[in-house]
Structures
1.
Amino acid sequence: MKKRNRIIDYMSYLAFRTAETIFHMFPLDANLRTARLIGSVMWMLINSDIPVVNKVLRRRHREQIMGNLHIAFGDRYSQQELEKIAKASCQSLVMFAMEFLFTGRMISIYNWHQYFTLKNFEPALKILLENRGAIMLTGHYGNFELPGYLMATLGFDMVAVMRPLDNPYLNDYIVKAREKHGLSLLYKKGASASMEQTLQDGSILSFIADQDAGRKGVFVDFFGKKASTYRSISLVAREMKVPIIVGGSRRTSWDKFQHEIELEDIIYPEDWQGKDDEVQYITERFNKALENMIRKDPTQYLWLHRRWKSRPPEERRLQETTKEA
């Protein structure tokens, strides 16, 4: 791995903190409108013919976004409609970043209902209140930090599994900000024993579950194309016999801070017991739940995300055979 430049990392951290200070001079709703504008400019630059911009953004990011959208919706939407979804996805990403700066200062156990509504969430709350351990999953959709953050604010013992940021200064700052408001963090690498202990203690493990897991992941259908998924979620759920709660936070207004946290599915231990391949079944089911959630409003998914990066063995063998021919 290439050694990082600590000076550049620290300057990036200072730039982040400076921007945070400036944005905090204005109300969040006003900043969200600014974020939408920045997202629009971002999409415009991705589509730009300016040589430098084209080299940095268009070749990689536009092809990634539009390629993913064609996989998911190429047979349903026109090119113009896909472009609109792509632009809105960029806006949603910047709005998520803006909301992240304000969440800790705004949300408390006394006022959370001013910003959130819970949809079909009663079965999930019942599980959380039992304090017997559970897994909560979401994807890169809407504000994917909010479900776990809100549950921690409401007093549930939440432990989020994460990959540390490459910038150590930003990572330390964000970790402290999350922990300050009751959300514990667990680094993903080598965390199997800690995850099992967390569940044994009756806490809730929180994952972002739509990340590419490389060639060794479990390959399941996601919008009709095989996608690699980490098997650790299914393995720990099977081992500890805990339910899996799948849902997400959907923005209900593009002009102010309003979100709907919806339960999409609950996978109970009895659902997978007796299946020929329990890990495959669990992984397929929560990916299908995430897909159903995204279909309700595809503009709020992070289509820049390389969800289909890794290919299953049969596809790789076919590619190798084709090259040899």
2.
Amino acid sequence: MSPVTQTQQQPPSKISPDTAHLIFRPYLIRAGVALAFGIFSLIYQAPDLMDSGPAWVNVSCAIYLFLTGVAMWEFLRQEPVPEAMRSPLSMAAAAWVLGPVALVGAQLFSAGVMATAIILSLALLVAGIAQLVAGGGYRKEFPPARDWLIPGAVDVLTAVATVIAIFVGADFHNLLGIVGSAAFIHAVFCSIPGVGYYLDTRRARRRGWRPKES
């Protein structure tokens, strides 16, 4: 291999500006959704709102899961994402999209706090395991895959905490507090790579790089 070719190659731990340009938005979308839901979960704990029943808990969690799934689908549709990595992350997106359907059904049929806890824990557990599989299995092939390891672990732990909470007498607001607290963690650990990739794109632009589509 010639010295010129070696110079042009990217280090394995780096990603190209084209990749950074395509994937920073899904990270920031998920971070924004998580932050908004986390703030809502804090506001909803106010005494004057706590008597409004489970409807807002089910609906807000459904919206949060659905928009998180939308952010993941946006990530998956980007060309740099390896084909093999799309399978586990598609399972995560499906869990986030199907979970809200079940939550709305639980609300319509007044199924109670146990049903909400089971739905949330299953959706988060499937999504968490899927992210761990994607992050652990493809982090060498596609460095951004490692960004899903901490969110995956957080989702698994949140699922476990949700189940445990039911056995200690948790109510709807306790469930919202658990999921909302985890959302703040997601906001941090999705915004860090998202902002990083955005800044990588800006630095590349200053060096003369331009997106392929332009």
3.
Amino acid sequence: NYVDVGTSGGVWGLERGYCLMIGGPDGAVQHLDPVFATLAPGADPGVPAPGKAAGTAPFGYLHCGPSGAGHFVKMVHNGIEYGVMAAYAEGMNILKSANAGKRQRTADAETSPLENPQYYQ
């Protein structure tokens, strides 16, 4: 039986527990459940959202499917996370490159005289 476990949690996982995305045969995953429960963060003390699925997900670990599924789900998680980080970086670069607020202007929409003011009366 091959079991794979993708982990998430970074340096904070050491103290809080790691989110575990598990792949493997049902029997092997059930046999290792005490290990996963120990490594995962445990139940959130908050009130669960209505309609939230039962199972181990609220405790920080999830059996995602057959062997390889845990790392596949982790790969999808990473792809989403890296996409968000790239979007932030692009946005920050646009703001930096726009030079917004750094140029002095002698005119603006509020105080500049209108061209052809008769059209706006």
4.
Amino acid sequence: MHANRFTAFAVSLLVAVGVLATAVQAQPLESGEGRAKLGVALRALNSTGVFLSVVAHPDDENNALLARLSQGEGHRTVLLSATRGDGGQNEIGPELFDALAVLRTEELHAAHRLDGAEQYFTRAVDFGYSFSVEETFERWGREEILGDFVRMIRTIRPDVVSAMSPEGRGGGQHHQA
């Protein structure tokens, strides 16, 4: 009689384990996202590199490069923008100044969900087109903004820093400052 009870218990236990294993296997992945994220995570284990891209405005970044380094190579990628783009133009909507800065910030965060970069800003305000580096530093506060950049570089500790050329031609002087 003990043998029959033990056999019934063992069979019930095996059936329960089999049902649970089947239920766990039946969990769907969201359109292959799990495998892609696993690949990125494995590449990141093989890399300790940190890449910092420094730009003046939210529309100056190179998202293809950020995606390649982050998603393709597994490096930590960071975008540091001096401004939030509040002095820029908006040809497709009514947002200007503070509202435009919010919109541009949200656009960057949406892009980084795809390219994998981290986003940081300094406290510089985009006051519109500037004709000289001196004007830009005067309006931003040269020491304060340089302090923001130094603080971020010391915090992030990048292996590579990419920025626009200080001898740039054309465009506003925010890029050269």
